[in-house]
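DM from R.C. (forwarded with permission)

"hey, sorry to bug you on a friday — could you get me a structure for this? deadline for the figure draft is monday and I only need the backbone to look sensible"
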Amino acid sequence: INVQRHKAFSYHGTHDDLSWSLSLGEYQEDNSFKANYVGLSSQYDTDKVTLQAELFMQNSEDSQEKPYSGYLQSTWHLKEHHDAVIRFERYDDHNIDVEEEIYLLGYVYRPNPNMALKGEYVYHSKLPLNRFVYSFSVLF
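My reply, with the result:
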């Protein structure tokens, strides 16, 4: 995406173990495509579990809109450095004409806070992308 102009507003709040945010914006690409979006997200984080949710909606003047995309995710902190993850995603994308559900079951090993080794199985309800995914990431 080559964005020519982007205007956005975001609000973030916290209370004890709960955090949330609201995002509003609009952007225009070089090819004159324009879109508006709104997003809501939340996270509840404890020593045993982290629950996350996100919902975004985008509309545009043509058929390339994404009426919604969202997910619910639960991460269980099994023991130090070891997490289990379950995720449910759903989106509707008029640009590629698909309304999809994605289910993820995964395991994460974090030898230190900025490093992760992940193994996940990802199931797609419509697209032929079901597979095991393995990754290694480092945050600098």
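R.C.: lifesaver. The chain is about 0% helix and 75% strand.
me: no worries. The beta strands are 3-15, 18-29, 34-45, 49-60, 66-79, 82-93, 98-109, 115-124, 131-138.
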